[in-house]
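Here we describe the complex-level prediction in full. Unlike the single-chain runs in Section 2.1, the four entities below were treated as one system.
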Amino acid sequence: MASRAKATILDIAREAGVSKSTVSLVLQGSGLIRPETATKVRKAIEDVGYVYNRGAANLRKAHSNVIGMVINDLTNPFFAELAVGMERVFQAAGIVPFIANTAENPVRQEEVLKSLMEQGVAGLIVSPARGTTPGAFRRIEAAGVPVVFAMRRLPESRIPAIAPDNHRGAFLATQHLIAKGHRRLAFFGGSSDLVVYHDRLGGFLEACETHGIPAADRTIVEGETSRKGGMACLETALASPLSPTAALCFNDAVAFGVMLALRKRGLEAGTDFAVVGFDDVAEAEHYIPALTSVAVDTAGLGERAAHVMLKMIQSRTTRAEDHIGAVNLAVRESCGPDRNARGAGMGDAA
Amino acid sequence: MASRAKATILDIAREAGVSKSTVSLVLQGSGLIRPETATKVRKAIEDVGYVYNRGAANLRKAHSNVIGMVINDLTNPFFAELAVGMERVFQAAGIVPFIANTAENPVRQEEVLKSLMEQGVAGLIVSPARGTTPGAFRRIEAAGVPVVFAMRRLPESRIPAIAPDNHRGAFLATQHLIAKGHRRLAFFGGSSDLVVYHDRLGGFLEACETHGIPAADRTIVEGETSRKGGMACLETALASPLSPTAALCFNDAVAFGVMLALRKRGLEAGTDFAVVGFDDVAEAEHYIPALTSVAVDTAGLGERAAHVMLKMIQSRTTRAEDHIGAVNLAVRESCGPDRNARGAGMGDAA
DNA sequence: GCCTATAAATGGAACGTTCCAATAAATCAA
DNA sequence: TTGATTTATTGGAACGTTCCATTTATAGGC
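The structure predicted for the assembly as a whole is:
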């Protein structure tokens, strides 16, 4: 089985009785070749079981067609959806993106980026891991390889970012809680080493200000962005003297954790405590109770990121505009039934 | 910003005042180089912002260190877990695997495999898409590139497969349902173009035989392996004259769908209808009611697959043993409370 | 029939590495 | 000292493509 030395373009040239240049032309679909010749060559390719060596080709072309997608947590369906959106676009462009997972680990991320660069990628779409150091992308920028950040961005970076309107999403969600009559509010999960965290927390705080919720009535608990983290947040908050009656969660995973912890205490999300998530993953709609969450059009953002990347490659630039995606609140059951009381007012004040 | 022509090994040789061969040796961590020289070279590499060109290297070495992981559905957390297990092993071996998604589409899979081959992968771990044609891997085998199948396999293929003991898992689950007193059983979801389907269905049928459930009392409904598919299955089954009281589902996604559909009809999984899933994804434990499911140690199988691959590459063979992973039933709430009654009447007759 | 224009096919020099064989420098045995 | 041995370093020929500049074949115009 162990295949005799791999066939090259020369082998198939010999087989087809033409020159290597001709074979190369056929491979590239050049119109300069007589159709019959092309057919002959293609047959030889088939017979010999030739496989194109892109590495060798790129050596001359300096124009690789591989794009790397670096994802910080593949097990979060949210990022998987993002990846799927991007793939749709790349597939249409005849490009196969390679996905690599960093498992939220900056060291691993460094390895992954290095490996991708060595592979000669044409561009990189990255959702950076927590704790990514500011200089992590300096070398890549210096090499002139286009990078776009998806969903997350870095503090002082010039790299274009595609992300939802986190501030507004959090603002809307918080306003919704206030409209439901809640006065003691919490923000659960996430950590301040993430730019997104500040965006979302900022929206939460602004809504509090706007509607006159005093700082004393706000509870902010950082935590892992997972179910486990969410459970811990709720415990912490309820243990505090002034326990909140509603929470905006950093993401849906945290929200699920909070609902789990509520249930463990014999409380019910919606009636005893209001919960809002962020991202609106597919599961949110099917959960019991169904989770109210900020919908961000994940796949759409993925597509957008891919388009921006394609454009950057094409125009050989390393710069592009940021893109802030629209958000909207998917209202479901986890904040309780609409209280007709409290009246008409409030719809979406301010 | 647009980087002057990329630096090569020669540039850094000049910069460091040594020959290209010396640089190459340093790059490979050869012990033949005087430490001070190596340091000098490394400094030059840093200064110039050199990035190694693996394509060029592989041209000479014919020994790439990239491994491709081809996954049929990244949005299913089950496969994401599998990928994560593999990554753990590869990371330890200093290899960065590239993941590609086929979205359960054989045509896309073809493209992805081609692209990976052209990239010169050292090996391929594949969870084949539904409807993969028998010959899809012929060329790859002919090229002598090791392939292992994970979770799924192809009918007549000689390619080693790493998979859970599907037959036994289904057998155990079905037995569990029967022990709970159910006599009219269903098998929901999946389709017969998948080998796994036959394995699981086979376990179901064997358990039925063993415990004397007549063929007339078995309902088999094929369907998409998703929530939606599960919902459809339940509707179909309940509409049939002889409606079942319990179901083994092809996978957890189907099971979640079935529970959703039950709830829509005002029925409750566990009390009104028993449901068992397959795969035991993380969510199963947290669902309400918690889903009884066949646990297959997904990440463990991923690790196993990675190890087998590593061994194949190392011993330059294209053959390996299949590996059947142990399974066990994680009993939770979706089949109802333990009926102490048990013996006597087979409670659920009707 | 000859010249020119067009179409089709080709040889050779890159591209950035590795690795073998060879050289140069340093050390040692006598 | 001299030759043998070990330690560091180096030039050059590959590896499998692309693409430019040519060559060769075919057709057209007169």
